[in-house]
Amino acid sequence: GDSVTQMEGPVTLSEEAFLTINCTYTATGYPSLFWYVQYPGEGLQLLLKATKADDKGSNKGFEATYRKETTSFHLEKGSVQVSDSAVYFCALRSSARQLTFGSGTQLTVLP
Amino acid sequence: DGGITQSPKYLFRKEGQNVTLSCEQNLNHDAMYWYRQDPGQGLRLIYYSQIVNDFQKGDIAEGYSVSREKKESFPLTVTSAQKNPTAFYLCASSPGVAGGRETQYFGPGTRLLVL
């Protein structure tokens, strides 16, 4: 079945540091890939997505590239801010029509 | 404003009681979903509905029930058969399922606690 493996957290960085959160997946066919962000006590917000190989999703300074050869969709940001502190979820959607989520990575950015 | 609303924000359940969580969307989306989130874990699918008057079980449907009588509403009932209902419940919707690539949009969630 489909599965998503995310980098274990928590991750703690200083403001303006470079961020990478690793995400790899297993799926049949050609899934769409997503990163969602969850701020404390809130629902999930779509951060970015990519629907085919080599696509790059980007939003708010975050980027992720759909790498079919390595089955990866790593999230990156060049310079994090305190306001980026949240839980980040990698997810995929295949022909099964439902989202499969990773376990989430807690990010804390210190001033 | 278009969006997904969930109510209440917090819900308390007594032993043996059924409770219903509300989810409403005004995005004109065909598909709706219910997920359960436990601390430190990802989301698990409870039920989903692709169209009015139709719904399917997800990975953890036991102890839950749903209805989809209107396009904009997808209430979730947590029954007394659900022995460990304490969790954060998230409702989502998407425009449709054709091609399986539509993005899901999430509501703010309901936190259910057992007294």
Uncertain regions spanning at least 5 consecutive residues of chain A: none
Largest interchain contact:
A-B, 24 and 23 residues
Number of helices of chain A: 0
The main sheet of chain A comes to: 6 strands, mixed
Count the E strands of chain B.
11
What does this protein look like?
The complex is a heterodimer of chains A (111) and B (115). Chain A is built from no helices and twelve strands. Chain A has strands at residues 3-6, 11-14, 19-21, 23-26, 32-38, 44-50, 56-59, 62-65, 75-77, 86-93, 99-101, 105-110. In chain A, a hairpin with a 2-residue loop joins strand 7 and strand 8. In chain B, the strands form two sheets. In chain B, strands 2, 4, 5, 6, 9, 10 and 11 form a seven-stranded mixed sheet that branches. Chain B has a four-stranded antiparallel sheet with strand order 1-3-8-7, with no helix packed on it. The A-B interface holds A 4, 32, 34, 36, 41-46, 49, 51, 89, 93-99, 101-104 and B 4, 6, 33, 40-43, 45, 48, 50, 58, 90, 92, 97, 100-101, 103-109.
Present the secondary structure layout.
The complex is a heterodimer of chains A (111) and B (115).
Chain A lengths: L2 E4 L4 E4 L4 E3 L1 E4 L5 E7 L5 E7 L5 E4 L2 E4 L9 E3 L8 E8 L5 E3 L3 E6 L1
Chain B lengths: L3 E4 L2 E4 L5 E7 L5 E7 L5 E9 L2 E4 L6 E3 L9 E3 L8 E8 L10 E2 L3 E5 L1
Parallel strand pairs in B: 2-11
Antiparallel strand pairs in B: 1-3, 3-8, 4-5, 4-9, 5-6, 7-8, 9-10, 9-11
Summary?
The complex is a heterodimer of chains A (111) and B (115). With 111 residues, chain A is mainly β. Chain A has no helices and 12 strands.
Q: Which features characterize this protein?
A:
A: 111 residues, six-stranded mixed β-sheet, four-stranded antiparallel β-sheet, globular, B: 115 residues, mainly beta, seven-stranded mixed β-sheet
